[in-house]
Amino acid sequence: MAQLAQGILDALDAEQRAVATAVRGPVCVIAGAGTGKTRAITHRLAYAVDIGVVDPQRILALTFTARAAGEMRTRLRALGVPNVAARTFHSAALKQLMYFWPQVLGGRFPSLLTTKTGFLGEAITRANISATKSNTVLRDVAGEIEWAKVIGLAPDEYIKAVDDYDRPIRISNNKVDATQIARVYEAYESLKKQERAIDFEDVLLLTVGMLEEEREVRDRIRDQYRYFTVDEYQDVSPLQQRLLDLWLGKREDICVVGDPAQTIYSFAGATPAFLLNFTNKYPQAEVIRLSSGYRSTPEIINTANSILRNANLGHELDPINSHGEKPKAIAFNSEKQEVQELAELIKQDIANGIASYEIAVLTRTNSQLENLEVTLSGAGIENQIRSAERFFNRAEVKEIIKAIRSASVLSEGDWLADLRDAMKPFGESEYVRAFMQLARELENEGTTSLRAFLRELEDRAEQNNPPTLPGVALATLHAAKGLEWKKVYLAGVCADVLPWGNQPLDEERRLFYVGVTRAEQSLVISYYGVPSPFLAEAGLI
Fold first, then answer.
1. DSSP secondary structure string, 410-423?
2. Which of 30, 44, 277, 320 is surrounded by the fewest CB atoms within 10 Å?
3. CB within 8 A of 441, min separation 6: which ones?
4. Sign of the C-alpha dihedral, residues 311, 319, 362, 135?
5. How far apart (Å, rounded) are the C-alpha atoms in residues 361 and 480?
6. What gap in Å lies between CA 65 and CA 265, rounded to an integer?
7. Which residues are paired to 359 by β-bridges?
8. How many CA atoms lie within 13 A of 332 on its CB side?
9. How far is Cα 505 from Cα 507, in angstroms, rounded to an integer?
10. Cα separation of 268 and 388, whole Å?
11. Per-residue model confidence (pLDDT) at position 67
């Protein structure tokens, strides 16, 4: 075995090595939270390239988030494989759709909606629905339309499907029924057509249509990509699976990675069925389990295992790290008292040496985050709400990148010093600090020039993969998926919040599990009034 290939394997444990050496598909990896799945699959790709199994330019690595795609590309570069296409389903589809648009459909490419809210507000008006047009309501309505589109429903099919799927409709603070949603959906589609615009679901639908109908396009894409990896496979929707099948054709060089215990997006059309039935589709598939928990302390992992065990949600994790403090639950009299006391606890954490960006407060709903943001800001604690807003579209970020681009032309020698000089006019803003933190991380990984740093920023902008911003992270449990922090607070874990409304109980339990497993060293859970039943299941009260 070549020295480099052996070095790639030496960095892995026995389970991860089994993944890395399974270089021919089909392969199914069941990876528990914090078990090193990204390490395993990136080393698998690097090993396959190094031993000549695949040309790196023939690989398509698909992820659930732009951040995950960026992390995968960074790790592959560090392993000496810089040319792998690691993208989200939407990003990969958009790139193909834009490339072949002149050949297949001709004319100007439609404008792409990065948010549905503007069009949905107008659609509600056109549909004559008396619903409040708050951001929360618009987000909820968008969620219903997105669900319908990814499982293949037209507006006139939506009402029946809600009954067939026994789908709860919950539009915040509004009594909006399925008939009204269908009217808004129809008006929204009509408005997009009128304005020659498409949304992200349309990108997948149009790419599927293009591949199904255009044999030449289909053959060219299949010739380009011959080796597939799919991360977070438990969150794939029927529409994404349909696209994946078209990319694959009858070939079987596919490796999927997922964890049924972390299925939390069924409300958006995702289903773990494709992961759970993978061996039915591919009877000869190799199935490998990753169970060594590297992220969290044994105490946190034991709590997570209790959640799994009580509901038979998945296989348990084996703790690897040194012992730490036991997770604790704290009761408060009211939400107001809870957020005020959490602010004081976070102040103590920072005073004790924990960096603010290593702390997260996670909640079930966005409205809970708003109260936390106000309270933490009032207490002088820097914080950031993780949202869908595109970081690289912000005016100041664009100006900073413009300055970096100009400086990169003349930069020689100490590129970090040149970067600091380029950003001096912008003071010590959060964006400047975020770029400097990213630059230091990339320097440690081998980046040697300002031009290379600029290429990284441009790549991240294309993928909507922002750097880590300073301050305490505030995020919903859904937005926290795939992330980790040294200290995590799960706030508002009350009986009427988690589980939320009439959502499926097991999915809400899995959401709680995801929250618990975001913590590396310390986990504090707080509630007011009646505690969530999940706390008792986890042995915390």
1. H--S-HHHHHHHHH
2. 277
3. none
4. negative
5. 10
6. 13
7. 487
8. 18
9. 5
10. 15
11. 81
d(CA 537, CA 308): 9
Report whether 526 contacts 491 (CB < 8 A): yes
Residue 265: name the closest of 114, 55, 482, 110 by CA: 482
CB-CB neighbours of 486 under 10 Å:
15
Helix (H, G, I), strand (E, B) or coil at 374: helix
Write down the pLDDT at residue 185: 93
Euclidean distance between CA atoms 308 and 30, whole angstroms: 15
Enumerate residues 6+ apart whose C-beta is below 8 A from 412. none
Handedness of CA 298, 303, 309, 315 (dihedral sign): negative
- Tokens coding 62: 């698909």
Sign of CA dihedral 280, 283, 286, 292: positive
Output phi, psi for 234, to 5 deg. Answer: -70, -15
Nearest Cα to 528, choosing from 394, 376, 345, 340?
A: 340
Euclidean distance between CA atoms 203 and 94, whole angstroms: 6
The confidence score (pLDDT) of residue 457 equals 84
Residue stretches of the chain with pLDDT short of 50? 1, 388
**Structure tokens, 33:** 């939270």
Cα angle for residues 20, 23, 29 (degrees, 5° grid): 60
Residues in the chain: 541
Which of 202, 191, 142 minimizes the C-alpha distance to 171? 142
**The overall pTM is greater than 0.70:** yes
25: Cβ–Cβ under 8 A, 6 or more apart, which residues? 228, 252, 253, 254, 255, 282, 285
Residue type, 391: F
* Cα–Cα distance, 293 to 35 (Å, whole number): 5
Six-digit token string for 299 = 């105490």
Give the full edge-to-edge strand order of the sheet including 472-476. Answer: 328-332, 519-528, 485-490, 359-363, 472-476, 383-385
DSSP SS3 for 59: strand
Amino acid code (one letter) for 209: G
313, two tokens:
């949600």
Note whether 442 and 453 are within 8 A (CB): yes
What is the spatial distance between Cα 338 and Cα 492, in angstroms, rounded to a whole number? 8
* Phi, psi torsion values for 256, nearest 5 degrees: -110, 145
Give the pairing of strands 197-198 and 111-112: parallel
CB 298 within 8 A of CB 271: no
In sequence order, the β-bridge partners of residue 86 are 61
Query: Tens of pLDDT along 387-425?
Result: 545 677 778 888 888 888 888 877 777 888 888 888 888
Buried b (16+ CB within 10 A) or exposed e, 312-336: ebbebbebbbeebeebebbebeebe
Q: What is the structure's pLDDT at 388?
A: 45
